[in-house]
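Re-run with default settings, no changes from the original entry. Doing this only to confirm the output is reproducible before filing.
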Amino acid sequence: MKRALSTIVLVLLADQVLKVWIKLHFTIGQHLPEDPSGWAFLHFIENDGMAFGMKFGGQAGKLMLSVFRIIAVAGIGLYLRSIIRHGARPGLITCVSLVFAGALGNIIDSTFYGVLFSRSTSIDVATFLPADGGYAPLLHGWVVDMFYFPIWHGRFPAWLPGWGGEEFEFFRPVFNLADAAITVGVLWLILFQRHAFAHGGKEPEQAIDPGPAAASLVEPPAAPSEPPAGPSSGA
């Protein structure tokens, strides 16, 4: 239980402190460092949709998505409590704790940030508890993303169907610490599931796969709204 609590508290605290700091100090599209030739940036955007920027039925869809995520996180929390009670291996407990903490971190954004902050724009920095109220009602907030790593710029080969000759950038999606925690937890389970689900010392229980619900809770990485220009080529 101590391992799970410490993992969850650490991830949540770091995730929310960083998000609040970004929200209160950056405008939309602002990035640090300002040198556009780098490969690692803090680049502020907000994610208000589903995976890959898709929408889900307007405001009603956003509400349904938020409620589904809350229910799914509650399920992961119950699963985590169950495996702790049944003496699961520390690795499995840590994996599920990372997924739970990351999912909860993004739910905090989508549930409360619309009420707690004013709208961030490309000109104005948001304020906390604005006199005129927040930018969205409860459960309609946007998730704060800030990590951007444009490590490699290139061009697809001309013979590739659909994308031939087009420029590409790796890694273009912008994400947050909560997304990273979920990704690490899920990858750890996939790569080391045989060891993670091994008998933990008590009466063996049938291992329960967290299933696709955990993966669906990642607030999907979004492409930067105004990405820093890539390094200019020499004359």
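Residues 2-29+47-146+176-216 form one domain. Residues 203-207, 230-235 have pLDDT under 50 and may be disordered.
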